[in-house]
UniProtKB/TrEMBL annotation:
Transmembrane segments: none annotated. Pfam families: His_Phos_1. InterPro entries: His_Pase_superF_clade-1, His_PPase_superfam. Gene3D superfamilies: Phosphoglycerate mutase-like. The lineage of its organism: Bacteria, Pseudomonadati, Pseudomonadota, Alphaproteobacteria, Rhodospirillales. This is Phosphohistidine phosphatase.
Length: 178
């Protein structure tokens, strides 16, 4: 059994028009949201063995702000190909994951991340799928499980969607507001 966590980067800033899209940083809302999601993941026991992270500044900052458990307990692969990647590129990257990793997180961007999450669905939480397809907001997270031994065997339409979580939802269960 393999677990995949798909996390969209936290909210980024558009205040500096001279900055390239790749180099945009998080805004204050994003800086507050990422630690909220990190605490939730930690409380749920979802600290991954390996993290694939886009090299975009906002994705790297999101990872950093999730908390020290993620930086110290996980192997991290920073991959430029994940910047604005399509679902095919995300699936290909996932297929290169070493099989010792039971839980993997990918931190990326829309629309590719949302498209990837939707295409993985084979069964599971249908309500979460509807909500995810409606809007995959910044710092949104979905969790899939796959009944495979090798990451290279993951295919579209074979995942079991366990949950879809938005930081906004976490505010209602005691997490600090963002």
């Amino acid at each position: 059994m393999k677990t995949l966590l798909l996390l969209r980067h936290a909210k980024s800033s558009w205040t500096d028009p001279s900055r390239s899209d790749h180099d945009r940083e998080l805004n204050r809302r994003g800086e507050k949201a990422a630690p909220v999601m990190g605490r939730y993941l930690h409380e749920q026991g979802l600290v991954p063995d390996l993290i694939w992270c886009s090299t975009a500044e906002r994705a790297v900052q999101t990872l950093t702000l999730l908390g020290r458990d993620f930086a110290s307990a996980s192997d991290v692969i920073y991959n430029e190909d994940l910047y604005m990647a399509t679902e095919a590129v995300l699936l290909e990257s996932l297929g290169h994951t070493h099989d010792e990793a039971r839980c993997v997180m990918m931190i990326g961007h829309n629309p590719g991340l949302a498209d990837f999450a939707a295409r993985l669905f084979g069964e599971g939480d249908g309500e979460a799928l509807l909500e995810m397809n409606r809007k995959y907001p910044t710092c949104g997270l979905c969790q899939y499980e796959f009944d495979v031994e090798h990451w290279a065997d993951v295919r579209f339409e074979t995942g079991r969607l366990i949950r879809f979580v938005k930081v906004k939802d976490l505010q209602g269960i005691g997490a600090p507001p963002t």
